[in-house]
Structure formats: C-alpha cells, structure tokens
Design brief:
homodimer; alpha/beta; Aspartate Aminotransferase, domain 1; Aspartate Aminotransferase, domain 2; seven-stranded mixed beta sheet; 15 strands
C-alpha cells in the first residue's frame, strides 16, 4: 500500500505554499540536488568522455524509458527518453503517415494541446499536398474515425478541462478502420493509470516535467508498440538511432527492430540525472492507489469549491473517473483571481479565456492542502481581492 | 590580452590527466556545480512554475544564443539555443528547401558528420520524390556548386582530420549560383574565429558540449541570417516558436520576423544553467588570441609527434591555418594505441578506420600538457605497449 505521507516528504515545497500546479511543472524532489551534484563531480568531471561507457550515459535513454514504462503499462524496451514532446509527436505522426501511405487524414480534436497540432501542420507542409488535419470537438472524434484516417492523434487528458478520452474505445475503433493512434500522455503519465500494452496502443509520447517532476523542460519520451517498431522508418533519423552509431557510415540504417531508432541526437545527460532522482520518488507507488487518492482529493476540492466559491463553474466532467488529475473551473474573472491566489501562495494557473486550473497530485498534496487552498480562494472571492489593480495586468508568460 | 593560465584554472581536470578530448566533450567548468545547485535550490525549488517569468527561463534560449553569437560573429538576436544539433540541421536544411522550391539538389561532402547526412535523408523521405543529396569529396565541393543546388550543407571543420573549409569562398560561390548554405559549427564554435555575419552566412548550427564545455548532451544552437528570418517557414513548428505561445491558438503562426521561431518545444532549463556557467569561462576571451595559441600548440604537438613517434602520419592539412583546433594522425594500430594512451591518462579518441584524434583546446591546455602527452605516446610506441591484449577489444561506444 502506497503511503502518501511518505511521498510528500520527498518533495521540496516552499514554506507556506500550497502547490496546485504539479500538472504544469512538478516540484523539486529533495534528492535531485545531490543526484545532479553526483553527476557533475563523479561522472562528468572525473570520467569525462569515458562517462558514455563507464557511467552508462549512452543507454540512459532506455533505462529511464523503462522506468517510465512501468508507470504507463508499456512493455520493456518500448520507450526511449529524450528531446521535447513536440519532437516526439512529430516522430510518431510521421511514422503513422509512412505506415499508411494511401490515407490522407489525420484526425485530432480542438482540445488537443496546440503544439501537437502545430507540429503536424509543419509535417504536412513538408509532405506532398493533399493531407487533411481535422480537429472536431473532442466528443465528435469517435464518429469521425473512418477508413480515410491514417492517424488519430489525441491528448488523452485535456490540458484545460481535465476531460479524459476513452483510450481503449478509440484505439479499438481506429484499428477496426485500419487507422493508427498516437497518444499524447502529457497529462496522463504519473497522473492516472495508463495501460499502453493492454490497450493495444500504437504510439504514445509524453513529457516528464509535469506529474513526473523532472524539472523545467525535462526530457520527453516516446513509446512505439513492439509489434510495429521494425516497420517504423524514423523521419528524424539522427546518429543516436543508427544501427552502428560509431561506424560513422554515410547512410542511415535504423537500429534493427529496436526502440533505439527513435533516438535522434545526443541527449542532455544532466537532465537525465535529475530525471533519475525524480523517478526514484515513484518507486513503490501503486498507480491504482494513486488514482484512488487523486479522485478522493479531486472530489473534496470540487465539493469545497462548489460549496464556498460562488461564481466558479466546474469545467469538464463531473464524474471524476472521466477526468485526469487536474480540476478546472470557469470564472469570468479567472485571470485576476488566479493572480490573487498566487499572491497568497496558492499556486494554480490560468488558461484563456476563463479557466482556473488546479493540479491534484497525491504524491505531495493532502486534505489540509485542499481545504487550505479553498479557504484562501473563498476569502479572495468574498473580499473581491481580485479587483485590486496589481492583479489585472497580464504577464507575457502565464 | 587573454591570459590562458587563468582560463586553465577555471576547469576541473582530474589529477594527472592530460585531456586532449575537449573537441568531443569539454571538461567541467569549476563554477558549474554551484550554478546548477543555485538553479535547483533558488530557482526551481523556490519559484516553481513562476520561474519561467521570475528567473527568465523563457528567454534563456535567446540570452544564451547571444553569448554564443559573440564568439561566432553573429548579429544580436540571430541565434537561439535548444534541442540537438541533428534537429537544428534538419530545421536549417528544411528551411533552405522551402526557400528554393524549384531546386532539387542538396550538396554536402563525404567528410560531413554522418548525422547531418542522416537527418537530410530523413527529410528527403518526407518530401516529395526527386531530391538528390550529393556527397563528393570535400575538395570537390566548390566545383559542384551549380544553379541546380538548393542548399550546400557542410561541416566547417572535418570531425576526423581537422581540415577546414573556406567558409567565405563557398558562401560566395553558392550565392552567385542562387544557393543557400548551412554550416555545421560543431568543431568551430569555441575552436576557431568564425565570422558568420561577415561571411554573409545564411544558416548555421552547432553544439555546446565540445569546445564550449556545456556538458554531455548540452543544447545545440541555430543561426539564421536576420535578412532571411522573416521568410523562414519553420518545419518543426512547436509552440515555443509561436507568435503568441500562451494564446493557445489552434493554428501555428511563427514569431514574426524573429529568430524565436526556430525554437520548438520546451527546452531543458537545467542544461541552460550549466551552459551559462560554461559561457562565463569565455568572458574576455579574444578569439584571435585563442586561434594564435591553438596554432602554437598544434604546431608544437605535430612537431613533437613527427620527431618522436614513428608510424604516425598527420591526417589533414599541414598548414595549421587550414585546420580547426584538433589534430589527427593515421596509425594502423590506432585503436589499441589510443586505448593504451587512455590507460596512461592521456585522453584522445579514435575514429575508424585508423584515426587517432587529439583536441587542442587552449582554454585548458599548455605546452607541458602537449609535451607530456607526446612523452607517453612515444613511450607506448617504443615499448609496443599497445600490443597488450587488454587494449585490443573494442567497446560499444568509442
């Protein structure tokens, strides 16, 4: 049984802060500074170039991939870490189009995180004309899966509302129509149980700076089903994915039948060291227990807000089983209200036009945090603190 | 006047080691551990999500880009940092092809670092058929620049031999034929003076883990000429390059007329912190003085090896002005000989089939290092130490 009072002690949360933004950037694991210092002093400084062998740097893409894989139901050797989520999405969708050359439709939805759509836009400009990127409402995705579709590309959990797609149902329908599916797990990995293998997933990608707590801009990951990998032609074909990277052949040959072919260029080993410390916090965490705890805390939060915070309306489904692990409320004064909350050290974030977003991360949140946050929110609303001029100006980065 | 005894003191070199591999992975700047700890404790842990604003994380792509730009003769606001060199090369070549839609030839050479060729291979598979990637001998590049060529893509300094292309002459001829040029500065940035602006460069990309000492897998950078940037359509169109990334539009609009459009996904801020420390070591370093010192040390090294190490033959030009800042020798027993050297704490590396490679990095090397390395090399050759069985087996990563 996972003890969430123990996991809370693993993270550095500033004194007096209630951090409800672990869905955007996770807090620092207390062990991370020692781990990165160990890398600096006892790996880079001492081993220098030899570190690629002696310290296992070269294969950390895979060893870290397997640790993430354990949280998302992936087979061993089916995930590598590196690059950014945008790049990993590009790789996955490019692979789908190459595997379905006669189909010209990419089906996404208008709740997808925009960068996924942008990356596909860029990809389609590179390809010959005639492709069609469709972005219906999330609820209409199922009915738009047809024999025309090469690739369904979706983010499982909506970054704004928290609404969760039914992964298995979508994959089943897509496969019945001969389409492939790419899942963006940005708001899933470390947030909810994911069963990539059990759902017969084709491709998935995610980031490690949100629920996995790898630090700002921590590396992304990509999953390719073992049954597909031998046929995947990497579009971003870098030396790190070559069959024999140190032969320095002039022609690309992907690493045979291995996820390694999805590696591209030389990855940041410092960011891997920090991610290792972050993954240590997941040792022994049962994802079903995490989910139960997340639902418990989300239910408490929604109940308290609805009882004490007039004007705020729940966004996304009321059924907690149909959500990821963040809760959002629509409020017309959402932006200044969130600024007022942040000034009181309750950290959530705002997504245009009117969404106040709160990450519910059981690894380091408990009932006291939830109730404490609603106390402050309720107080801000009661006193209309959000009307203060200092909360009205928008900063460039929100 | 740059004082290279002072810069040497800025780097952590293990006791008794002579490190001639700064062209592959630079040593750790002594200030880097404190800088990364400061990031961990006083940025990530304290500011959490707010750090994107309060600590300037969001624009470190550009502030670091400008610091690198100062070493390679770039205009302000013409370089951003992030991703890997493979990705940055892909972006640059894709941009060239979009700017020259009627031309179907990419001209490189067979001395280019293979990943650059691999990335173009992948790009051409995505594009409609009909493209031709040509890889003549380096000496034949000039004569193959014709009106058919969309893009000349070259690494300025050959990663094996150290031979340097004439950047200005190639750009001039390419421009006369209406072609664009992409330079890979992997073995140039921090190694030799580069005058991107003065040479009328179109695109360039480089890495920061070699001569710039940013650590294993440190971020790459890309340069786009200010006169071109408004017309560059990013093929890897991520949210970090969007005109208004926090508007979360469903459609991509590149940051208008700014190098920021070459940013893709969320970059590793930890790796930026380390790179900042590495760039501090370059403050006040005059690149002409560095070049003079590099030539002095390379001349000494070649002279000593040729006088005392029979069997080794200089690879690449004898004229030091026609080289980058590493020196290579061909030797049929190069692999075991390099292993024997490494066992004696003289660190160079080996590139198949027979090249022993030595980085000459004035920031942290002096005459004593050079002579000391040749003493040990000469001893190994004299005693045929390299014949020992332990030096014969090749490791996976060389």
């Amino acid at each position: 049984m996972t003890d969430f009072t123990k996991t809370k002690a693993l993270f550095q949360i500033p004194e007096g802060m209630i951090y409800l933004n672990g869905n955007s950037l996770g807090p620092m694991p207390k062990s991370a500074p020692d781990r990165i210092l160990d890398f600096m002093h006892n790996e880079w400084a001492t081993d220098l170039i030899k570190g690629w062998n002696t310290k296992g740097w070269f294969m950390q893409t895979n060893t870290l991939g397997d640790r993430i894989g354990a949280l998302v139901g992936a087979e061993e050797d089916s995930i590598v870490v590196g690059d950014t989520l945008s790049i990993k999405i590009f790789q996955a969708v490019a692979a789908c189009l190459a595997l379905r050359p006669d189909r010209k439709v990419i089906l996404s939805d208008n709740g997808n995180f925009p960068t996924d759509l942008y990356m596909v836009e860029g990809l389609l400009k590179l390809k010959e004309a005639g492709y069609d990127l469709r972005t219906p409402n999330p609820d209409d995705v199922m009915e738009q899966i047809t024999d025309e579709v090469a690739c369904v590309m979706l983010t499982e959990v909506d970054y704004r509302t928290g609404r969760k797609h039914d992964m298995k149902a979508i994959i089943d329908k897509a496969h019945a129509h001969g389409a492939l599916v790419v899942w963006d797990l940005a708001h899933s990995a470390g947030a909810i149980p994911v069963d990539l293998s059990g759902c017969d997933t084709d491709f998935a990608a995610g980031c490690t700076y949100k629920f996995l707590n790898g630090g700002p801009g921590a590396p992304a990951f990509i999953y390719v089903a073992p049954r597909l990998i031998a046929d995947v032609e990497p579009a971003l074909s870098g030396w790190y994915g070559h069959a024999a990277p140190f032969d320095f052949d002039l022609n690309y040959r992907p690493m045979p039948n291995k996820i390694d072919r999805m590696r591209i260029g030389t990855p940041s080993i410092a960011s891997f060291a920090i991610l290792e410390a972050a993954m240590d916090a997941w040792d022994g965490v049962d994802m079903q227990a995490l989910r139960a705890r997340s639902i418990e805390l989300m239910t408490l939060f929604v109940g308290e807000v609805e009882a004490r915070c007039p004007g705020l309306t729940l966004a996304g489904p009321r059924d907690m089983n149909a959500r990821g692990s963040h809760v959002s409320f629509r409020f017309e004064h959402g932006y200044p209200c969130m600024q007022a909350l942040i000034a009181k050290k309750v950290i959530g974030d705002f997504r245009a036009p009117d969404i106040m977003r709160f990450g519910i991360t059981p690894l380091f949140l408990d009932e006291d945090d939830i109730r404490g946050a609603v106390d402050i929110l309720s107080d801000i609303l009661k006193n209309e603190t959000w009307k203060e001029e200092r909360f009205q100006t928008r900063s460039a980065v929100t």
